[in-house]
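JOB MANIFEST
job_type = single_chain_structure
chain_count = 1
residues = 133
[input]
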Amino acid sequence: MTRHSTCSCGQLTADVTGEPFAVALCSCEECQRRTGSAFGFSGYWMEENVAISGESKAWARISAVGRRLEFHFCPTCGSTIWWVAEFLPGRIGLALGNMDHAGLTPVVRVWDKRRADWLDHLDRMDVFEEGRL
């Protein structure tokens, strides 16, 4: 199976083949800042299964446990598409909100102590199948 990931403007893309070795939700404060959401939703593939095209800019940071991560984003629209982490050599992380993530279910939650409390109540919220604005 091949999945296609793209930034908001379409300039930066990643195509991945096969299944990820991990799918995760991360609630660390850095993922919340990176996504502007309550968590990051990511999948991790071996780098030989990922083909990236387009121009990207990179920004690196040190994680809360002292490990380096380098994030690649579109210089036009700012969407983060992919990253590499020193603790996962030979692997690439992809932001799953930018691709068709059908069938990709998170198997792990990390930094759960930072998870938004309201996530426990999703099944009690009003639901609209499509946007109303």
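[summary]
The radius of gyration is 15 Å.
The mean pLDDT is 89.
exit_status = 0
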